[in-house]
Amino acid sequence: xxxxxxxxxxLAKPSWRVKPFRNxxxxxxxxxxxxxxxxxxxxxxxxxLFEILSKRENFTKEEKEKILHFSSLYAVRMxxxxxxxxxxxxxxxxxxxxxxxxxxxxxxxxxxxxxxxxNKYYRKASLTSEPELREFYHDKEFERINxxxxxxxxxxVTGAYTIxxxxxxxxxxxxxxxxxxxxxxxxxxxxxxxxxxxxxxxIYPVLKSLYEKGARYLQIDEPAATTKRDEIDLFILTMxxxxxxxxxKVFFGTHICFSDYFLLFPAIEELEGILNEIHFEYANxxxxxxxxxxxxxxxxxxxxxxxNNKFVVGLxxxxxxxxxxxxxxxIRDRILYxxxxxxxxxxxxxxxxxxxxxRTWDIAFxxxxxxxxxxxxxxxxAGL
Amino acid sequence: xxxILHGVYPRxxxxxxxxxxxxxxxxxxxxxxxxxxxxxxALRELQKNFEYKTQGQFYFxxxxxxxxxxxxxxxxxxxxxxxxxxxxxxxxxFKNFKLKENENFFNHYLLCDGMFEKEEKLVFxxxxxxxxxxxxxxxxxxxxxxxxxxxxxEIDKWGNKIIVFYEPSFGWRNLDExxxxxxxxxxxxxxxxxxxxxxLHTFFFDVEKEIPFIFSLxxxxxxFDFYSNSVQKIMQNFPKNKFLLAGIINTDSTLIEKxxxxxxxxxxxxxxxxxxxxxxxxxxVPELLPREIMDEKIKNLNKIGGL
Lengths: 384, 307
Description:
Chain A is an alpha/beta fold. Chain A is 39% helix and 15% strand.
């Protein structure tokens, strides 16, 4: 029995992918970067890309489409070269995980920037009319990646709860009056309607269409899942409605990060049999010391909650917020510690904590390669 | 009706872009400062008929961070979710708490490098003790009090100020008896400052169970989020002669408040309190909304409130 590895969503977009879409002239460095990675990843058709990029600016629509195709291909090949079992293209087709889907749902209007922290801002939209899916917004991406991937493809889809939580609501909340009796109950009821509408009429059709196109691994991203403590029930409901009759047909995982995971238990156990995998970030809270005891593996405390259920544990073993390259032995120990608690290697999928988009490709590749090496060491040590 | 703005006000789209450009070394510090000034001046203009004005606290990275500049050995640590929002604070880790004099705190963060005079009628917002504790480590409540009192004693010398303490912890977590005692002592200590009015503003959560305790803290006024609480429950035992910060500008929604809704609210609330004791204000943190929306809400309320 072998352990399975996968990535979690995003990778950085190469400068030669970003600049043409912003109408910025490519530099020698950008082209050199494309060449270096193209050769390293042994991209067969890379000369075609180099020829397009040599133009440096004023790319046509068709050329931009080709550049997008190549950045997707490069990202998939990078993961394959690192030895990852389930692959994706690191969001090369998307702006990011919120704005991309929201721009494809009728009823949302972007209202401006809101501070996340320090000088970091995100653009926030408001629901102003009944939401309606404009297009199956991940189909083309899946078909393209699936056409060249040598390994099974996993597509991340931003979940309904996160889309709703990161948006304003002018539509379902329009009749709320300040100071009225039972105002919190009324707001929660409006929130429920908003969530169900997005789950049933946006996320479910998107997932279903991906299934019909052949996708068999889907990851529902819900970083906002634990934001509001009295809405865990709504998050669970939303997940059920999003997956609905697709349960059992697709391997469904959810990715939640940088949250208080204890808030999810025991409620999330209601999703057994619907959701296959639950992936959390662990390495970010862990020590960098070797060892397989709870003192060294501080970040993995929540694993105890998986002892008595059947979920696959998506095990984050790479801290995505640092350039520190986790040595394979550290990754091995993190896996062995999890194996000791979960007991069943089939229930552990090894992955980074989150998307690696804030790391350079050089760093991301080294981290991922070590992750795979660490997995082999763990398999050997555990006699798998 | 009086209107008051508190907290960190949202930055304009132009300033958001300028801070990005500055971080990426595309513009100079001087050019960035110019955009800050434009934002501050625009906010001053928006409040031209207000009795007390905020300067927007635009230089605050968050409500705690400037305090790291008036203490020794503070580490600015990782991100922690700001209550139940999608915004984050950096936790302050105090290694060895000791006050440090730094005029920059007052001149830059509070008076915006000379854009405001000490004598002006201004509103400043600071974190109350439980909020401060939630986003810091290595500092005890008595030390938080010492830090806040140091700042307040300086501001009180300027005269004519309102200090709003934010405290979202009410209704969010259980406060133990010792913490409550400390909070009470702190409120008592504030009474010695004669030139400043102190308001305690709660938001985000249902604070019904905490109302007796909140009203037992001897502040000049209390603020409530009326999108999380009903008028009836808050106002039935509202203490006489205290001010009310009525959180009616919904900071959780981009919807501009309707005239009839505000008029209806004022009708309801004025059964419990004289209208001259009411300040209409944002229900929570203004910077949870984009600048353009927040400005529009203030203009709208100003128009309706002026009736």
